[in-house]
Amino acid sequence: MRRLKISIYYLQELNYRLTYTVFGTIFLFITTYTYKQELIFLFLPKGFSHFVSTGLTEVFFTYLQLCTIFSFSSGVGITLIQLYLFLRPGLYTFEAKTAFNFLVTTLLFYIYSYIFIFPVIVKILWEIFSAYSHNFTAIDLTFEPRLQDYLTHLQQLSKTLTISFPCLIILNILRIYTNRHIWVKCRGIAYIAAFSFAAFITPPDVLSQTLIGIPLIIIYEIQLKFWSLYEEYKKQLLIRQPIKSHKNTHRKKK
Fold first, then answer.
1. Could you give the CA distance from residue 32 to residue 130 in angstroms, rounded to a whole number?
2. Which residues are listed as membrane-spanning (predicted)?
């Protein structure tokens, strides 16, 4: 009977946490939809003033897409916080401290990524791809970008940043239980797995798969290089440590 009461209590607590997460995400969606035009100007590239809309309902669904991207990206942080608050009472002190450090690291990683890294990548990609629309001056031909396509690529870039941190965690766990030579030997398999995963979560076009697959491969190579440097660092520490003499416990005392 006591176990049944405890199970009911945990189910109620889990239900409360899920409710807080859903209401928080809905509140973010309503807030972003209220200030949708301001968000559009925030996401616009610097020096650009307009996009082309070719469909009657395209503007409305573009606003919904923008609000969904922003609210669900922020909803991931709310979900992690509620999950930590749900698991915290049943954890030991060391486990709770580790989970709290992991939560803070995750939130700081995503905040830094979306505030500093994301705008820089968007600016670089925009300058690369928009340069092709100005190379037809000889025949007076100009291409105008579509807002929906632009937000679609922003969404794909957001997916890349979102899955980068879990990939780092998974690679660190695999590093503990595997050997570095296996990683080097299976490098081709890792490349194929990265593009297969990119093809699974992106639309069926080469550009989208490349935007997702290449960063995963870069993360894999950085992890492999970091592993090599870490092992070399440990060897240097072992070389510099003095050899301690051990007493022979089996020798008879005189």
1. 27
2. 20-43, 63-87, 99-126, 160-177, 189-206, 212-230
Residue holding tokens 């580790």? 98
Distance CA 120, CA 53 (A): 26
pTM comes to: 0.67
CB-count burial class (<10 Å; 0-12, 13-18, 19+) for 194: buried
CB-based contact 157:121 (threshold 8 Å) = yes
d(CA 46, CA 21) in angstroms, rounded, equals 34
Instruction: Please name the amino acid found at residue 49.
Output: S
Q: How far is CA 184 from CA 195, 217, 219, 221, in A?
A: 18, 13, 14, 10
**Contact, 162 vs 113, CB < 8 A?**
no
Q: What are the backbone dihedrals phi and psi of residue 146, each rounded to the nearest 5 degrees, phi first?
A: -100, 140
Q: pLDDT (tens digit, 9 = 90+) per residue, 190-210?
A: 888 888 887 877 766 677 778
Q: Terminal CA-to-CA distance of the chain, rounded, Å? A: 68
pLDDT per position as a tens digit, 51-66: 656 566 777 777 787 7
